[in-house]
Amino acid sequence: MSTAVNSIPQPDEKLDFKKILPVFVIILIDLLGLTIIIPMLALYAASFGANAVTIGFLGAVYPAAQVIGAPFLGRLSDRFGRKPVLILSQIGTLLGFLLLGFADALWMFFLARLIDGLSGANISTAQAVITDSTTDKTRTQGLGLVGAAFGIGFVFGPVISYVALSLSQNDYHAPAFIAAGFSFISILLTILLLKETLPKERRVNLNTRREISLSILFDTLKKPFVGFLLVVMFFQQLAFGMFQQMLSLFTLNRLGLNASGNAVIFVFVGIVVVAVQGYFIGRWSRKFGEKWLIRFGLIMLLAGLLLTALTPRVPVPWYSQASVAAELSGGRSMPGETPPMQSLAVDIPSDANKGLLGLGWILVAMIPAAIGGGVLQPSINSLLTRNVSVVDIGGTLGISAALLSAANAFAPVIGGVLFQRIYSGAPYLFGSLVAVVLVLISLRGLEKRAHQPE
C-alpha cells in the first residue's frame, strides 16, 4: 500500500503553467518595451553629446528612483492586492517611454527615467504574483520564468529596435515610441487577463508608518540568513549591473558596434537566458537546490566578466568610423567636420585591423555571464521567500527589488567613471573582483540555517 501511495505524483512538484501563463505573457509584453530601449539608450544619449560618466548617471536615475518606489509599492501590494499596484507601475513606464520618444535634450532623458523609476515595481509585483501561485518546490522555476521573459525580450526586443532603426534611418526616437506602444498593450492585458492572486484574508493592514518606511529594510537585513541573501543579491547585481549598463559603450569602443550591431549581441544573450531560465533552472533547482545554483551562478558571472574585460580591440569587418561617427553625432556636428569626430564624447576605433576576433571573443564571454546573471536572481529570491513568513513575502521581494535597484544605481556611475578615467575594460575587472569575494563568502555563508522563517 505504501509503495502505491508513494508512486502517485505529488501536485506541488510540478509548476502549474495555467496559473503562471497570464502573468508571464504580461511580463513579456512589458519587457519587450524595455528591451527595445536597452541596446540603444546609451548611444541615444551619446548622440546628444553625453560621455561615459554622464551616461553612467543617466543609467543610475531609474534604479535610484526605484529604490524609493519599489519597497513602498511592494508593501502596498501586500495590502491592496497585486493587480492595482502592477497597473499603476505600468502607467509610469508608459509615461516614461513617451517622454523619451519626444526627447530633444538630455534633461528629458533624466526626467523620463525618473518617472519610470518612481513607479517601477512591475517586476517585483509580478514576482509576488508568481510566489502566490507556486509552492516551495516550484517557486524557483516560477520565478525563473521572469528571467525567461527577460531572455525572450532580449531576443525579440533588440530585433524590433534594429528594424525600427533601419526603417527610420537610425532615428533613435522611433524605438522609444514603439516601446511605449508595448507598454500600453501590457496595461490592457493586465486589466483584461490578470486575476488577483492575493485574497483579502491574506492581506496585511498598513496601520503604522513603519509598515511602509525604510526602517523595515534595516530590520530585514538584521535577520541572519535573510540579511546575508540580500547582501549577496546587492553585490552580485553591482557586478552584473556594470556588465549590462556599460556593454553598449564597451562594444562601441572595442568593436565599433553601433545600436544595430549591439542588437545582435543582446539577441545572443537573450537566447542563452531563455535556455537557462526557461528550461535548465527548473531542472537544476530540483536536482541541486538553490544554494548550489547561487554558487554556480557566481562562478559563471566571474568567468564572464573576466573574459569580457580581456576582449581585444578588433573592429568588426563591416565597421566604418565615418558612418558610426555620423550616426552618433545625431546631426549636430561642428561645421566642417568630416567625419564629425569632435562632437563625440566616446572614443571609437579606427578603421585599421578589422576582423572577427573581437566579436567572436565577446560572444564566448557572454555565455557564462548570461548563465550567471540568469540563475542568481531567481535562486536568491526563491530562497528568500522560503525563509520569511507568508505575509512578508511581498515586502521582502520589494526590499530585494530595492537592493537590486540600488546596485543598478551605483553600477553605472562606478562603471562610467572607471570607463572614462581608466579604460573601457576597467568596469569588468572591478566586477570580477566583486565576484571573487562573493564566491569566497558563499562557501560558508550559504551553510547557515535555512528554510525556517526568520
Characteristic terms for this protein:
454 residues, mainly alpha, Growth Hormone, Chain: A, 17 helices, 74% helix
Overall description:
With 454 residues, this protein is mostly helical. It has one domain (17-196, 213-445): Up-down Bundle (Growth Hormone, Chain: A), CATH 1.20.1250. The chain is 74% helix and 0% strand. The protein has 17 helices and no strands. Helix 3 packs parallel to helix 5. The longest helix is centred in the first third of the chain and has 30 residues, at 17-46. The chain is globular.
Helix/strand layout:
Elements: H1 2-7, H2 17-46, H3 52-80, H4 82-102, H5 106-118, H6 122-132, H7 139-167, H8 173-193, H9 215-221, H10 224-245, H11 247-255, H12 259-288, H13 290-309, H14 321-329, H15 357-385, H16 393-421, H17 426-445
Inertia-based shape:
globular
CATH topology: Growth Hormone, Chain: A
Q: Which residue ranges are poorly predicted, with pLDDT under 50 across at least 5 consecutive positions?
A: 1-9, 208-212, 332-343
CATH architecture: Up-down Bundle
Strand portion: under 5%
Total count of helical runs of at least 4 residues = 17
CATH superfamily: MFS general substrate transporter like domains
Query: What is the helix/strand order?
Result: HHHHHHHHHHHHHHHHH
CATH class: Mainly Alpha
Number of domains: 1
Structural class: mainly alpha
Separation of termini?
Answer: 38 Å
Number of beta-strand segments: 0
Mean pLDDT: 80
